[in-house]
């Protein structure tokens, strides 16, 4: 799952606007309930404190670094909204003897934690601050009389549930992301060599070819095949053969390090390397480096193999311009060059030009 900054920003702004509209809707509902003597106080709290706080956050969302600091901004928003609610409850009680409901505090917590996405650790801190605030309010102004303990328990419990639910949600998303990454890797990479599998190799090669055509740069396709691998398997066993495949992959990664180099397992003991924007003599140098690495590895081959140590043959096609080329055509050319390398005695490379 990739984080998409513009769409996340849009989503958050929409959530904030919905929040602001909800405050207005609740205002209308509350005004039906409240005695008219309290209208001024109530409207002051909602319209001149809470509503502008939300509008300020919407304005802050246009700040360049908002996404980076959004969790802190939303945590501050939650504290500000909750404490302005506490203030309203307190003033209603002390000045008008009116018992203002506390449910808004819970709604604000759920809205900020879920709709705006305050992460788990920050949600604990902020909700703790809000629970302490509510308990403090109940201490200095026991608004709900006999119901103070149950009200305090209800507010604390609800805020705790929002934090716990956030934790479960974060964990599930994290696990989903890990599984997704694993599946993506499995669908793209060959598990034995950790190189691209045939399908991913084709997809990436097509993309690189399109880019090379657009930028009018050269390309080279190398096809590699372990020499007398059947004999190696027969002599040392399939498992040892798998080790040789891993060595081949390691050598390829050692020699071809550019970000744009595409390394893949084409099938069995055949590998493909696709390069872009490279000179012909550089390609030849890299092929020689591959052969040298195998020589240095000095891995004993089967007695009846052509060479005493395990080696590979390489067929290369180099195209200065790829305007009229397709990937299939380039692979076919590299395959023919590989056949030539095998015919000429193996453990060597044959480079042809398209
Ligand atoms: N250990 C192992 N062997 C494999 C794997 N994939 C293919 N092979 C073996 O690779 C061998 C390929 O043999 P051939 O196609 O006859 O080629 P070769 O023996 O390398 O002969 P040349 O290509 O002429 O040098 C077969 O024995 C396959 O079983 C694999 O994943 N692991």
From TrEMBL:
<keyword id="KW-1133">Transmembrane helix</keyword>
<keyword id="KW-0472">Membrane</keyword>
<feature type="transmembrane region" description="Helical">
    <location>
        <begin position="12"/>
        <end position="33"/>
    </location>
</feature>
<feature type="domain" description="GGDEF">
    <location>
        <begin position="217"/>
        <end position="354"/>
    </location>
</feature>
<feature type="transmembrane region" description="Helical">
    <location>
        <begin position="150"/>
        <end position="167"/>
    </location>
</feature>
<feature type="transmembrane region" description="Helical">
    <location>
        <begin position="72"/>
        <end position="93"/>
    </location>
</feature>
<dbReference type="InterPro" id="IPR000160">
    <property type="entry name" value="GGDEF_dom"/>
</dbReference>
<dbReference type="InterPro" id="IPR050469">
    <property type="entry name" value="Diguanylate_Cyclase"/>
</dbReference>
<dbReference type="InterPro" id="IPR029787">
    <property type="entry name" value="Nucleotide_cyclase"/>
</dbReference>
<dbReference type="Pfam" id="PF00990">
    <property type="entry name" value="GGDEF"/>
</dbReference>
<keyword id="KW-0812">Transmembrane</keyword>
<feature type="transmembrane region" description="Helical">
    <location>
        <begin position="39"/>
        <end position="60"/>
    </location>
</feature>
<feature type="transmembrane region" description="Helical">
    <location>
        <begin position="125"/>
        <end position="144"/>
    </location>
</feature>
<feature type="transmembrane region" description="Helical">
    <location>
        <begin position="99"/>
        <end position="118"/>
    </location>
</feature>
<dbReference type="InterPro" id="IPR043128">
    <property type="entry name" value="Rev_trsase/Diguanyl_cyclase"/>
</dbReference>
<protein>
    <recommendedName>
        <fullName>diguanylate cyclase</fullName>
        <ecNumber>2.7.7.65</ecNumber>
    </recommendedName>
</protein>
């Amino acid at each position: 799952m990739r984080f998409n900054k513009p769409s996340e920003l849009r989503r958050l702004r929409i959530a904030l606007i919905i929040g602001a509209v909800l405050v207005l809707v609740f205002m209308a509902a509350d005004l039906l309930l409240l005695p008219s003597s309290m209208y001024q106080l109530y409207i002051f709290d909602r319209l001149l404190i809470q509503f502008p706080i939300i509008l300020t956050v919407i304005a802050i969302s246009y700040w360049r670094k908002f996404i980076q600091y959004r969790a802190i901004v939303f945590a501050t928003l939650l504290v500000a909204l909750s404490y302005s609610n506490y203030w309203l409850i307190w003033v209603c009680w002390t000045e008008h003897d009116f018992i203002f409901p506390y449910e808004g505090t819970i709604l604000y917590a759920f809205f900020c934690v879920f709709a705006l996405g305050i992460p788990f650790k920050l949600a604990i801190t902020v909700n703790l601050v809000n629970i302490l605030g509510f308990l403090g309010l109940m201490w200095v102004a026991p608004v709900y009389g006999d119901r103070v303990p149950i009200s305090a328990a209800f507010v604390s419990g609800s805020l705790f549930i929002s934090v716990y639910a956030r934790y479960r949600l974060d964990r599930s998303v994290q696990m989903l992301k890990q599984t997704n990454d694993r599946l993506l890797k499995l669908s793209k990479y060959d598990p034995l060599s950790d190189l691209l599998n045939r399908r991913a190799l084709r997809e990436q090669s097509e993309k690189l070819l399109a880019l090379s055509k657009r930028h009018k740069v050269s390309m080279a396709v190398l096809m590699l095949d372990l020499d007398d691998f059947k004999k190696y398997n027969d002599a040392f066993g399939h498992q040892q053969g798998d080790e040789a495949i891993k060595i081949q992959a390691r050598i390829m990664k050692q020699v071809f390090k550019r970000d744009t180099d595409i390394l893949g397992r084409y099938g069995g003991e055949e590998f493909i390397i696709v390069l872009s924007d490279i000179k012909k003599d550089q390609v030849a140098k890299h092929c020689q480096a591959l052969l040298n690495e195998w020589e240095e590895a000095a891995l004993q081959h089967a007695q009846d193999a052509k060479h005493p140590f395990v080696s590979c043959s390489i067929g290369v096609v180099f195209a200065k311009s790829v305007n009229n080329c397709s990937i299939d055509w380039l692979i076919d050319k590299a395959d023919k060059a590989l056949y030539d390398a095998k015919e000429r005695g193996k453990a060597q490379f044959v480079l042809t030009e398209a």
